[in-house]
Design brief:
Elements lengths: L8 H8 L3 H9 L7 E2 L5 E2 L2 H15 L4 H9 L10 H38 L4 H12 L9 H4 L17
Antiparallel strand pairs: 1-2
């Protein structure tokens, strides 16, 4: 029988994009199981550990607190999700929050694009910045500007057509 490939903490960090210190921390707080050790005391990780670290990194990027990840990490990858309806519901709820955040961030991007377009036509910023923005925007498809309803998301509504001194 072929022995499973193992990885050092340095190799694991490189493969997952998570620092060695963070991996050690995840072990310390029992988010990850304690790594096996070689005779010299060095940690040894298997592919399953790397997959778990990648899952943690993914959930972390979504803003999920480490403590909320624990139940997801306890379930094996080959388990039928139907056996854990509460986890499925929690993940669906978390997904809805992320989709909402994406929509909010898109409004911010639309607002910034609108401000850049206003400045582009008014010519109220330096040539150096204008050249940089023009070059970048030439290669990109023109994005739709945010509607007044979308702009209501912001505390200060955008004032289109006003002089640069009246827009703050």
């Amino acid at each position: 029988m072929k022995e499973e490939q193992t990885f050092t903490i340095k190799q694991t960090a490189r493969q997952t994009g998570i620092s060695e210190d963070t991996i050690r921390y995840y072990e310390k707080i029992a988010l990850l199981p304690r790594a096996d050790r070689r005779d010299n005391g060095h940690r040894v990780y298997q592919q399953e550990d790397i997959n778990t670290i990648r899952l943690i990194a993914c959930l972390k990027k979504t803003g999920m607190p480490l403590e909320e990840m624990r139940p997801f990490l306890m379930v094996s990858t080959d388990t039928d999700p139907a056996e854990y309806p509460e986890l499925v519901e929690q993940l669906r709820s978390h997904r809805e929050n992320i989709v909402s955040q994406i929509a909010s961030l898109q409004q911010v991007v639309d607002f910034i694009d609108m401000k850049l377009e206003e400045g582009r036509y008014r010519g109220d910023y330096s040539v150096q910045i204008q050249d940089g923005v023009s070059e970048k925007m030439m290669g990109e498809p023109k994005s739709k500007l945010a509607s007044s309803a979308e702009m209501s998301f912001f505390s200060t509504p955008a004032r289109v057509g006003k002089s640069p001194t009246s827009v703050r």
